[in-house]
């Protein structure tokens, strides 16, 4: 507990409750998830860059999404893994806490912007295929990606600044495995109600600002697919969108529960579970979602493995 008029210059991450044996089990589990996430997304990035069959807007966006997934999980998971190995609570400096929260939120905002752009890309591909190459030109794709990255990082400057303007004098123990904004606000001695409401509105803007184009795009996509007379044609059209749609459901579902709520400072156990979904489970699942349900990616992976085997034999 800190003095009444002093603010924390460092924090202690409480992490996960439980015995040392449980922590070792969690470490092994999350370390496995982290390695698979890094390898899976890196493989996607490499094949998108080198395979000519994947030189299209959809895979261009997918490559950037994989970069974001690797960065999001790297911002939080190594700190969490180190905390599971250490006895007691993990210390993190104020500067590191600010940097972690900013990167976590900025990368997440960029990811949602990109998911919205990918939905529009699928709409153009299914509903307006003859003009697809004109509308989704290289210049358009680069512009969309650059805007997504710049918007994501600029948009989160004020929320993070506002969070750390409060005086953290109640305690410096954060009841999570990373610098979670909701748990940080619990430590503030000031009245955070107005700031929490503004943060809620900003979260609504980010999530629904990218979710609405996604919903509208998929409404038109489904309507167009249902008009296709042959079952094989409908299946082929839907297969081009299935991976993105699955990713949208998982990603938006997790973040709606975590950030779109008027009161940011809710139960720590709830925040911890949903944060795990966002930072660990979703990045782990996405490489499987985008590879196992995509024939072009599977074919590119198969050819890549064959090429590597031939190189080793020679």
Give your account of this protein's structure.
- This protein is mainly α and about 325 residues long.
- It has a single domain (about 10-310), classed as Rhodopsin 7-helix transmembrane proteins (Rhopdopsin 7-helix transmembrane proteins, Up-down Bundle).
- Helix content is about 75%, strand content about 5%.
- It has 11 helices and 3 strands.
- The chain has helices at about 20-50, 55-85, 95-125, 130-135, 140-155, 155-165, 180-185, 195-225, 230-260, 270-290, 295-314, and strands at about 10-15, 90-95, 175.
- Strands 2-1-3 form a 3-stranded mixed sheet.
- Helix 1 (about 20-50) runs antiparallel to helix 2, helix 3 (about 95-125) runs antiparallel to helix 9 (about 230-260) and helix 8 runs antiparallel to helix 9 (about 230-260).
- The radius of gyration is 22 Å and the shape is globular.
- The model is unreliable at about 1-5 (pLDDT under 50).
- One of its GO terms (cellular component) is plasma membrane.
- It is a multi-pass membrane protein.
- Keywords: Cell membrane, G-protein coupled receptor, Membrane, Olfaction, Receptor, Sensory transduction, Transducer, Transmembrane, Transmembrane helix.
């Amino acid at each position: 507990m800190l003095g009444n008029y002093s603010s924390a210059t460092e924090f202690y991450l409480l992490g996960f409750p439980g015995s040392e044996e449980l922590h070792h089990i969690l470490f092994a589990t999350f370390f496995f998830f982290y390695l698979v996430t890094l390898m899976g997304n890196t493989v996607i990035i490499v094949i998108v860059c080198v395979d000519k069959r994947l030189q299209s807007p959809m895979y261009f966006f997918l490559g950037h999404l994989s970069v974001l997934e690797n960065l999001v999980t790297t911002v939080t998971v190594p700190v969490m893994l180190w905390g599971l190995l250490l006895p007691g609570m993990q210390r993190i400096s104020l500067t590191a806490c600010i940097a972690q929260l900013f990167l976590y939120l900025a990368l997440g905002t960029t990811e949602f912007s990109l998911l919205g752009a990918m939905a529009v890309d699928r709409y153009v591909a299914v509903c307006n295929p003859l003009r697809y190459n004109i509308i989704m030109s290289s210049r358009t794709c680069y512009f969309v990606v650059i805007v997504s990255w710049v918007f994501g990082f600029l948009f989160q400057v004020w929320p993070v600044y506002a969070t750390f303007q409060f005086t953290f004098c109640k305690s410096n123990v954060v009841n999570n495995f990373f610098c979670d904004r909701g748990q940080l606000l619990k430590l503030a001695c000031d009245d955070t109600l107005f700031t929490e409401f503004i943060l809620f509105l900003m979260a609504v803007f980010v999530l629904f600002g990218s979710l609405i184009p996604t919903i509208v795009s998929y409404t038109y996509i489904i309507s167009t697919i249902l008009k296709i007379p042959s079952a094989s044609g409908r299946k082929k059209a839907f297969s081009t969108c299935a991976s993105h749609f699955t990713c949208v459901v998982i990603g938006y579902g997790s973040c709606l529960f975590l950030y779109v709520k008027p009161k940011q400072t809710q139960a720590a156990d709830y925040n911890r579970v949903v944060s795990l979904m966002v930072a660990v489970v979703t990045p782990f699942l996405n490489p499987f979602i985008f590879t196992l349900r995509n024939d072009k990616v599977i074919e590119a992976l198969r050819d890549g493995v064959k090429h590597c085997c031939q190189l080793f034999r020679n």
